[in-house]
Every structure is written in structure tokens, then in C-alpha cells.
Design goal:
By secondary structure, the protein is mostly helical. The protein is 52% helix and 8% strand. It has one domain. The strands form four sheets. A two-stranded parallel sheet has the order 1-2. Strands 3-4 form a two-stranded antiparallel ribbon. It is globular and about 60 Å long.
Amino acid sequence: MKLPAVLLTVALLSMGTVSARETDQYLSWDIELQDSAPLINGYLDKAMQSVLDNPENKHKSCQDLSKKFYQQLIGPYTFSELSIWAQNGKDMQSYRFPSVGKSEYVKESIYGGEGASPIIRWVIGLAPTLNINGIYLGTDKLGHISYMGNKYYKKYLKLRKKGLDEDKAISKVLEGGIRSEVVLGGFYGTSSISDLEGNYQGLRLAIDLCEGKNPILSKEDGKWSVDKERLKIQNYVTPEMDESYYPIIFGKLTWNDSVKERIQKICAEKDLTIVKKRFAYYRENFQKSRNILIMNAKMQLDPKFDNSKFSYQKVCGLDF
């Protein structure tokens, strides 16, 4: 990569305009946040209504409306207007950036030690944590649902046009995403299966808008309508988006004593009552998604897919 390209990449990363932020849910283990789902659902509803209210869209196909909806979530210049709005929203209760500033938040996190990756500490930064329907996740996951979900959907549509059925097209898209994140991108950096889960859930949303027996969008008497009860963010958020519950895969340059010791310190010093209850809620109320089942199967066959060595159970010796 030529120097100007490197500088441009760094500039984009620092502005948070690409899918690059890390996140740290360990910091919120002893924190209870208000559920942000109602606020985010209001955002989704407003975005969809703006598409449906536009007279130019009256005779558009459902897939065209879906694309325009995603354009509302992504925005013209950023990775995701939705995630930026959630990160900076005045009414959104999050932990902890922007209330303490980007640099201070990173210093508090598992990535804040002197031995941690300087790219994470000084360039990429951390996305704050939200509570959506009892699941704690970084605001970056909303970007994966919107921006990367849209990219997955475009690949899915191309595969359908080539003759693949829905099941095979989804599988091929997921396999490609896993290969890109883990095999190509994770050797020296980090590979987030939680990010891949966000991508998959964004694909699910895109498919649900127009496909199946009961799509979210429907047309009757020449007028499009939306099923608002189904266009809800909690339908597309899973426990595996919590990176303290389902850990990222660290590469050779990112897994070190600094990160390990910070995780151990959190395990030893925080009151674990809240997080024990939270993880029990995860296990009792949610099934593994198709994306996670694929990843879990790969872990049994190939150690490069195994994230268990980075789990709080392994690092801290905890059994909940």
C-alpha cells in the first residue's frame, strides 16, 4: 500500500467512518443500562416512513424500497449513520464514551495497557456499550447490521440471480464473510465473530423486509405499508454480539500479557452479580443463530477459529 493510501486509511479510521472500532463489554459487567431498543426502533420507524412517504417510491419494487431504507441507515459518507447517532445520541444511555472522551475510555478498557495494540489505543478507538433488550453490545454492531448487512444482502441477491436457492445463497455469503474476517484478517489483528453476527443479522433484516410468507413490507391497493411490530432492532440482536460473552479471536500482535492481565483484573475486582444474571438471561432466552452454529462447527475442526482460549472462563478461571 502506498503512503497516501496508508494516511487516508488512518484518517478514515480516526473518523470512525469504516468498520473498524473495537468495543469492550467487560467494562459494563457491573453496570445496568436502560434498554435502548425503543429509541432505536423509533429511528428505524422514522427511516422507513421517510421512504414510504416519498411519492417517487410509490411504484418502486420492494427490493428498491429495501435498498432506500438501508441508504437511510448508512448515510452518504459514513459507515453507518445509525451507529453514529446511537454513539452520540443525547437520550441514549451508554457506557462510557463519549461522556469521558475517546482517549480516557480506551485507557480504562482491556486495550488500554502499554503493551496493547497502538492502532486500537490511538487510531481506531472504542465504541460505547448499549443495552438492547437485555443484550450488551457496542454501537459498532449497529453499523454491522446496517452497512455490512446491506453488503451481505447485495451478495445474496447476486447469488439468487445465478440460480442458488435461499439456503445455499445465505450459506455462501456467510462462508465468505467468515473467510474474510478470520482467515484473511485475523492472523495479526483481531477477528470479531460478534461483527460477523451483526453482518448476518443485517442480512436477515434485509431478507425479512421483502421475502417469505409474511414480509415486513407489503403492498395493498397500490400502497406500501410496514409491519412496525416486526421492524424492531431486538429481533436482530443476539447475545453473541456481546464481546465479553462471545470473545473475539486475537492475533499474534494483539493478544499479550497486557490484555490478559486487564481481563483478569476486571474478573477479580468487579462485582459479578449483575453479569452472572445477564449471561444466564442470554443462555435461557436465545438460541444460537445460523452464523454462530457455522462458527462453532469450524472451531471443532480448525484451531484458528477457536475463540475459547480468549474467554473469561479460560482467562479468569470462572465457571458461570
